[in-house]
Amino acid sequence: MKEIVKDVYHVGDSGCSVFLVNTKSDDGLVLIDCGMSLNMIKRISKYNLNPLDIKHCIITHFHIDHIAICAELKEFNKKIKYYAHELDADAIEEPGYEKETAASWYGVRYTPVKLERRLTGKKEILKFGSYEFQCLHIPGHTPGSIAILLELSDPKVKILFGQDLHGPIIPGVSDYDNYQESLKLVRDLEADILCEGHFGIFQPASKVKEYINQYIK
Ligand SMILES: [Zn+2]
Ligand SMILES: [Zn+2]
User: Fold this and answer.
1) What is the pLDDT of residue 8?
2) What does the pLDDT look like over 155-175, one tens digit per residue?
3) How confident is the chain (217 residues) per 10-residue block, as mean pLDDT?
4) Distance between CA 208 and CA 42 in Å, rounded?
5) At 75, is the secondary structure helix, strand, or coil?
6) Residue 155: CB partners within 8 Å, gap ≥ 6?
């Protein structure tokens, strides 16, 4: 667990990197993906954050390393609400997508969960407390992948949660041309900090750009 900027945390890595924002409001704590270990999430209590205060979890895409513990987390904390893009929603809400989610490849049994809301279109804003989570559709890695942009005023930084910007391109699931277009879209956001799903946290803006550019052909 590490604070990236005030009230924005890297919870840890289990399958993917899991990030958390403390909205200090009735909307409580917001997770970006939940990964594969409930114990890791429970450990936020060591940092004076109550895992039962997690009210929302924005899912960046349907891969199992990002969603494995959704049902377990919901069992532990009934208040949590999930959000994902409509084009990835069926695989999260319904059984029978073990191949697409890579659950079968990981040897993990996935229990579907209901979404509070299916995000649609190119951009939707989820407002929790005073935070506006800009959910940007970045198809390619999966059809309904999203990146999440937070523009903070104190400190004044743009944080981009771009979970699987590295890919990979998976036959039958990914679309290479869309992926390339999406990479350009996120690069041009000129974020100051990039929280990636598997390769760490990049800053300042020049490092973010450099990281994303390496995947653009
Ligand atoms: Zn993925
Ligand atoms: Zn991933």
Assistant:
1) 97
2) 999 999 999 999 999 999 999
3) 97 98 98 98 96 98 98 98 98 97 96 98 98 98 98 95 95 96 98 97 98 97
4) 30
5) helix
6) 5, 6
Nearest-ligand number for the alpha carbon of 173: 1
Q: pTM here?
A: 0.98
CA 25 / ligand 1 centre spacing (Å): 31
In the reported structure, the alpha carbon of residue 132 is separated from the centroid of ligand 2 by a whole-number distance in angstroms of: 24
What would the 3-class secondary structure string for 86-128 be? HHHHHHHHCCCCHHHHCHHHHCCCCCCCCCCEEECCCEEEEEE
∠ Cα 137 143 148 (to 5°): 30
63 Cα–ligand 1 center, Å: 5
Dihedral (C-alpha) 60, 63, 69, 70: value to the nearest 10 degrees? 50
List the shell of residues around ion ligand 1, using CB closer than 5 Å: 63, 164
Determine the distance separating the centroid of ligand 2 and the alpha carbon of 169, expressed in angstroms. 12
Q: How far is the CA of 171 from the centre of ligand 2 (A)?
A: 16
